[in-house]
Amino acid sequence: MEQIKVIVTGYDRYQGVDVNPSYLVPQALADRGVGGLNRGGTRLEDPLLGVDLDITAVTLPVSFAKAWPILHQAIERVEPDLVISTGLKRHARGISMERCAVNVKAVGDDRARQEGSGHGLTEPVDPDGPAAYWTRLPLRAILQEFGHCGIPATLSSDAGTYVCNALFYNLLGWATKHPEVLAGFVSLPLANENDRQGLGLPIEQQIRAVQEVVRETVRYYRQPSSSPILIA
Ligand code: PCA
């Protein structure tokens, strides 16, 4: 059996948010796996057929200084094939599949407001780094899968200017030196259990979404396709 190791990350308590979905979702994946098919199912096109999937959940502090070093340590310990990071994007209506990380971070006291596109003072994440990095996750396949599952989602080129984007930037910078590893970022909306009109999605749907992200990324990892990953 081929072993594929996955790190799924999220964040610890986050100011002003009762339930941070990015705290719950990685843990749920580590506990439950990514769906029934890898537990005795035999659907032909199951990307997990013959795969021993090992998922490690990592909870990170909402801290520019600490988040990446902790993830980096976990990466060195686990030696993963895939790294999927998640974080809360409060104003999102559905799942946002992030295409790129930018070399910009908010400075100043109102950092927490910089989760979306920020307007305040900024500085580079890495003064010597490029303007942006692209993810190599199969975003098109993932969004197609979301369509089949009825999961509301969009492509995004903006993980904000706060810790999520900085972590993503550092992660993709690391991944350029480790091209055998696929890495990406999924922004999650608020956990919303009942108000269908408002922002957010129920937590179970968010868990399902990140399970699909892992499944489709494993499929691509095992058999890279020639179809374009990025949608212009
Ligand atoms: N979202 C923040 C940091 C922690 C989180 O869940 C962000 O968008 O950067």
UniProtKB/TrEMBL annotation:
One of its GO terms (molecular function) is pyroglutamyl-peptidase activity. It is an enzyme of class 3 (hydrolase). The active site is at 164. It catalyses: Release of an N-terminal pyroglutamyl group from a polypeptide, the second amino acid generally not being Pro. InterPro entries: Peptidase_C15, Peptidase_C15-like, Peptidase_C15-like_sf, PGPEP1_Cys_AS. Its EC number is 3.4.19.3. GO terms for biological process: proteolysis. The keyword Protease applies. Keywords: Cytoplasm, Hydrolase, Protease, Thiol protease. PROSITE patterns: PYRASE_CYS. The keyword Disulfide bond does not apply. Pfam families: Peptidase_C15. It comes from the Bacteria. One of its GO terms (cellular component) is cytosol. Belongs to the peptidase C15 family. This is Pyroglutamyl-peptidase I.
